[in-house]
Amino acid sequence: MQSSREGALVAELMMFRRDADGRDVELSSSTVALEVELQRRVEAGLEQMLGIRFLASEYATGPWHRGRIDTLGLDENGSPVVIEFKKGSGSGVMSQAVSYLSWLESAQHEFEALVRKVLGVEAAVAIDWRRPRMVCIAAGFSHHDRVAVQRLPERIDLVRYRIFEGGLLGLLLVDSAPGFAGATSSRRSRERATGVGSAPAAPVTPPSAGVGLVPECLRDLYAELDDALTAWGEVEVAPLRHYIAYRRLVNVASVLFRPKHEAILVYLRLDPDTVELEEGFTRDMRGIGHLGTGDLEVRLASAAGLEKAAPLIRRAFEAA
Fold this sequence. Notes:
Blueprint: E1 2-5, E2 8-11, E3 16-18, E4 24-26, E5 29-30, H1 35-44, H2 46-50, E6 52-60, H3 62-65, E7 68-75, E8 80-89, H4 93-106, H5 108-118, H6 121-125, E9 133-140, H7 143-151, E10 155-164, E11 168-177, H8 187-193, H9 219-229, E12 236-239, E13 244-247, E14 251-258, E15 263-268, E16 282-284, E17 296-300, H10 303-319
Parallel strand pairs: 8-9, 9-10
Antiparallel strand pairs: 1-2, 3-4, 5-10, 6-7, 7-8, 10-11, 12-13, 13-14, 14-15, 15-17, 16-17
Helix pairs in contact: 9-10
């Protein structure tokens, strides 16, 4: 939920509980007493919360960078990830982001060795160095932080947290910059960037999503699919080596092309047990290796198929 504060829109995390009278009562929230409490909790559920595989905590960056990275990880698309936690506001987090991503670029062999040790050779070979990522988790961010994220060429996510009654942890993606290595923002973000009163455009514009990945025979269908996948607010569109990822904090959909069959495969972050599977249209992919992420495969070969898939797409994004 958003509230207006000092003339600007500020993202607010709110949670409600239904009381005995059937009324919704807002739960009180707070921040952690110690930063390490937040760090350990998120690290314990890193893959479920953020789609990131854990590599290391408190990782020293050496004498030149003189830092200690809170958490290192590898996300579901194979991108290296640096995570920084702040129990209060994210003061100074932008300078840390640039410094740590600079270290990551200079320490590729060291990072690959760490991935090989923790996750295995296959994960190390599949690292995608085009799109390293910084995730900053804090109680709040300033307007200047949010402006800086959109101006910097690095890929940075700003995530706000709150601890609610009963020990519930809430995470909210406040702002996200896809970087300039191939990712683009959602259609809505692109339209907003050219609207009246918007901030000046960044000096570098990333290429259109999926350029070079989309076969000619599937371009019209993919254009309609892209509209459907980016109609749900802030969605990052990330063209990767073998598929196009549509993500918020985690991948919500992965799109692959099968030109020989004139079909598009969409892998959604949905539990197949909650879907009535239909042969030739939807398939349970749990335990079956495939490119992209998501347990439910949806096969699209026409606009009619896309229309039939619309409720599944809606459910995936509503749950994200």
